[in-house]
Amino acid sequence: MNLKGKKVVVGVTGGIAAYKAAELVRVLVREEAEVKVAMTRNATEFVTPLTFQALSGNPVIWEMFGRESGDMEHIAWGQQSDIIVIAPATANFIGKVASGIADDFLSTMLLAATAPVLLCPAMNVKMYENQVVQENMARLRKRGIEIMEPSEGQLACRAEGRGRLPDPGAILEHIKSMLAPKDLVGCKFLVTAGPTIEPIDPVRFITNHSSGKMGFALARAARQRGAEVILVSGPTGLVPPEGTRFFEVRTALEMKDLVLQKAPQCDAVIKAAAVSDYRPKSQAQQKLKKGKQKLTLDLVRNPDILAELGKMKQGPRPVLVGFAAETQDLLANAKKKLKAKNLDMVVANDVSRPDAGFQVDTNAVKLIFKDGRIEELPLMSKEEVANQILDQVKALMEAV
Ligand code: PMT
User: Fold this and answer.
1) Do domains 7-179 and 188-398 have the same CATH topology?
2) pTM higher than 0.90
3) Is it true that domain 188-398 has CATH number 1.10.10.10?
């Protein structure tokens, strides 16, 4: 989901990580959220309000008094926004919120807020581990405030440990999770993603162009909407979406074993992975030396995992969704797969298009159903495609 129409208040407190809040605001604006920024006075020592005004396109507030405005923003901002994100949240600010202190605009706004609150602590590792900070965070969690664990790594004070503000992309994913409709709670999804790799010898293998983006978008969106998600992926290098149970495999045979083991416990299986249909008949134990001009590889068929799931399917669950990656006769080929593999829906994509299919961030798909219905989706982000697919899977699950 993108954040169009969502009102997000970003609170910035006085830690060195305040500079990263600028990138968070930029990312939120790019997602079409309406962003307002409030700062503590100390935060203005690290980054100027002008920076946030320029990035958000809205006035920034850091003073409780002395402003020409009578709009009671300290009340309105916390009650008319969809979410309040405090990033970074210093130990001092966490202590104030935990103790109900309201001695500046940001803490006062928070005390009167009715919107959900996400705190992103960032500080020196010893400060973060300090018992009083831990106790303050425990108190806030008890009151329903969401707190995002800081990342591990080198801190601004050169110490190593947990205390880094998470990357803006990770914070954005957390915000989307908090804002997404939880309409898939109680559902269990199995999603496959990425390529498989079929070894030729210890150095070489056969694979394909799948980046994993489509499958990861599906897993992320399902998780954000409250589902329990198992993600089985070939090697992609992508960061698994927060909260998913992630399994990395290499070969089609490994993927098959895991998928056939997990699928029966799931409500829906969505197979976005680009599974190699063939593998070398034998895998050389040593690196093949280039000698003769010609090298012939004998390839044998890999099992068709989705077709095996189709054969196993006795009743309406799991709902089975496959993809069809085609370069010609898209509908005819996709319909053939829908029937041959006993699917409930097939997502057909023309992978010869430069803006769809492998690697890119967008996709243009046709959703084809067992009852003959076809839904053509315009080109959109893989994240939006994922949510459209999930909407249809939800409808299929509810129909049975
Ligand atoms: O990963 P990205 O870079 O984001 O690219 C996305 C994608 C192009 C990989 C994705 O949108 C897509 O089309 N995935 C399916 C690719 C594929 O293998 O399509 P296919 O038509 O060859 O296979 C049909 C279906 O059977 C697929 O659901 C596939 O997972 C499944 N299959 C195929 C072969 C096999 N041996 N076992 C299978 O389960």
Assistant:
1) yes
2) no
3) no
Q: Which CATH class is domain 7-179?
A: alpha beta
Gap from CA of 215 to ligand 1 centroid (Å): 10
Can you tell me which atom of ligand 1 is nearest the CA of 302? 36
Measured at the CA of 380, the angle between CA 377 and CA 381, to 5 degrees, comes to 135
Q: Ligand 1, residue 334: give the atom nearest the CA.
A: 21
Pocket of ligand 1, beta carbon within 6 A: 192, 194, 210-214, 252, 271-275, 277, 302, 304-306, 322-325, 337, 349, 351, 357-359
Average pLDDT over residues 336-362: 96
- Hey, which residues are catalytic here? 157
Number of helices (H) and strands (E) in the chain: give both, helices first: 13, 21
CB 49 within 8 A of CB 62: yes
Distance 387 CA to ligand 1 centre (A): 18
> Ligand 1 atom closest to Cα of 194?
1
pLDDT tens digits for 368-391? 999 999 999 999 999 999 999 999
**Domain ranges within the chain, ordered by starting residue:** 7-179, 188-398
Alpha-carbon span 227 to 219, nearest angstrom? 9
| Nearest-angstrom CA–CA distance, 136 and 96 | 9
Q: What is the DSSP string of 302-347?
A: PP-HHHHHHHH--SS-SEEEEEEEESS-HHHHHHHHHHHTT-SEEE
Q: Label residues 353-364 b or e (16+ Cβ within 10 Å = b).
A: eeebbbebebbb
* pLDDT at residue 139 tops 70: yes
